[in-house]
Amino acid sequence: MFIKDKDFYKRVLMIAVPITLQSLITFAINMMDTVMVGQLGEIPLSAVSISGQIFFVTTILCFGISGGGAVLTSQYWGKNDKESVSKTLSLILKINIIMGIIVMLLSIMIPGTLLRLYNNDARVIDEGISYLRTAALMYPLFCITTGIAIIFRTVSQIKISVIANCAAFVLNVFFNWVLIFGYLGMPKLGLRGAAIATVIARFVECIIMVSYLLFKDKKIKFKISQLFKFDKLIFKQYLKSGINILISDAILVAGLTSLTMILGRLGPEMIAANSICSIVIQLSTITISGIGNSGLVIIGNTIGEGNIEKAKKLSKKFLVISIITGIIAAVIISLTKHIAVDFYNVGQTTKEIAYKLMDGAAFIVIFQVPSVVLTKGILRGGGDTKFLLLADVIFLWILSIPLGMIAAFWLKLSPALIYICLKSDEIIKSIWCTFRMFGNKWIKDVTTA
What is the C-alpha separation between 65 and 151, in angstroms, rounded? Predict the structure, then answer.
C-alpha cells in the first residue's frame, strides 16, 4: 500500500515540489528581510516583526477565503467542470480584492492602533508605523496573487506561481540592499526602504500572475468580464462549505494574534527571539505546504471523480508521510538552532530565549506537521469543513490560549514551556483528526447544491 503505488508518489511530487519551492522562496524573502533589517538592531527587527503580524493575519484570511474556493475547484476539476472552476475563481478574487483594500486602508489610517495590539514599546511602535504605512500598498496586490495561485494549485497549474515568486524574491533582495542601506546613490531609508522594496516585489509578482491568467492560461480560461458577474449557485455552494474554512481561519487568526500578543508582552527580546525562531521553524517545515496542498488537490480530485474507496486509501498514505516529515523537522530544528541564532546581530539574552523557544518548537513540530496535513489537506479536500471549524475553535481557544497565558504571566515558565503551552492545540488536533480520518464521515461531495 505504501511502497508500490508509484503513480501516487509521482503525482504527489508533481504537486508538492513546486509548492514546496514556492514556500522556500517565500521563506527566503522573509529570511532576507529579517536578516537585512536585523543588521539595524533589535528595535528595527522587532518593529518589522510586529508589522509582519498584520501581513500574517492578511495571509491567513486570504488563504481561508481562497482555500474555501479550493475545496470546490479541486472537486470540480475531478468532474472536469472547467466553467465552475472559472466562476469560483471569479468569486474568490472579488472577495480577496475587497479584503486587501480594507487592510490597506486600516494600515494607512490607524497603523499605531494595529501595532499596539502586539506590543506596547513606544520605540518599536514608532519604527513600525513608518514601515507599515508604506508596506500597506502591497496588500491588494498580494490578495489577488494568492487567490489566483491557490486556485491554480487545484488544477495542477503551479509553475507560473514559482516563476512569479522567484521574480519577487530577486527584486525584494535587490531593492532591500539598495534602499535600506543607501547603495547605488540612493538615500539610506532603513525600515521604510524595506517596505518600498516589498511593494515593488509584490507589484511585479501580481502583474506576472494576472497576465498569465488572462492571456496564457489554457486550463481555466478565465475572462476579465467574469469579475463583473455573480453566480448564485457557486455562491451558495461556497457558503455551504467554503465559508466554514474562512470562519475557521479567521478564528485561527484571532487565536494566533492572541498568542503573538502574549509573547509581545514579554518584552522586545522575546519578540526578536520569536522572529528568529519562526524563520528556523519555517525552514524545517518547508514541505508542509506542499504535502498539505497535494493532499487537498489529490483527495478532492479523487472524490470529484466519485472514487471514495481510493480517497480513503490515499488519505492513510498522506498521514504516514506527514508523521515521517514531522520527525525529520524536529531533528532539523534541534541541529540548526545554534547556527541560525548566532547568525543574527542580537544580544545574548535574545539568543538564549531563541534557543529555548526552538527546544519547544522541536517537540511541537512532531505533532504540528500531521495536524496541518490533516486539517489543511486531507479533511479539507474531503469537504469536512464543519468538523475542521469545530476543531480549530475548541482546542485553540479553550486549551492553548488560556494555558499559554497561565504559563507566561502566572507560572512564569521557561520560553520552551510557554511555547509548548501556546501550541498545545496542535497535539490534540493531530490525534483527534487522525481518528476522524479513519472513519467515513469526513468524505463529502461539496459541489452538489
Answer: 11
Averaged confidence pLDDT in the chain: 84
DSSP class per residue in 55-113: HHHHHHHHHHHHHHHHHHHHHHHHTT-HHHHHHHHHHHHHHHHHHHHHHHHHHHH-HHH
How high is the pLDDT of residue 375? 87
Helix (H) or strand (E) holding 422: helix 415-422
| Beta-carbon-side half-sphere exposure of residue 320 (alpha carbons within 13 Å) | 9
DSSP 8-class letter at 137: G
In a domain, 198, yes or no: yes
Q: Is residue 1 included in any domain, yes or no?
A: no
Residue 333, domain extent: 6-437
The most confident of the ranges 116-120, 261-265, 426-430 is 426-430
Residue 442 lies in a domain: no
Q: pTM for the complete prediction?
A: 0.76
Among 288, 320, 417, CA closest to 363: 417
Buried b (16+ CB within 10 A) or exposed e, 368-402: bbbbbbbbbbbbbbbbbbebbbebbeebbbebbbe
CA distance 12 to 76: 19
Cell numbers standing for residue 60: 491567513
- For 324, residues 6+ apart whose C-beta sits below 8 A from its C-beta are none
246 occurs within a structural domain: yes
Q: What are the residues whose beta carbons fall under 8 Å from the beta carbon of 377, sequence distance 6 or more?
A: 291, 292, 293, 294, 295, 296, 299, 318
C-alpha to C-alpha distances, 255 to 354, 393, 436, nearest whole angstrom: 22, 9, 23
Q: Is the pLDDT of residue 206 over 60?
A: yes
Alpha helices in 265-384 (DSSP H): 268-284, 288-304, 308-342, 348-373, 379-381
**CA torsion sign, 189 to 192 to 194 to 196?**
negative
Q: What angle do CA 367, 369, 373 make, to 5 degrees?
A: 120
Q: How far is CA 176 from CA 104, 199, 275, in A?
A: 21, 11, 18
Cα–Cα distance, 283 to 162 (Å, whole number): 17
**Cα–Cα dist 278/31, whole Å:** 10
Can you tell me which residue has the cell 490607524?
110
Count Cβ neighbours within 10 Å for each residue of 308-346 and write b for 16 or more, e otherwise: eeebbebbebbbebbbebbebbbebbbeebeebbeebeb
Structural domains in the chain (count): 1
Contact 241, 68 (CB under 8 A): yes
Q: State mean pLDDT over 60-69.
A: 85
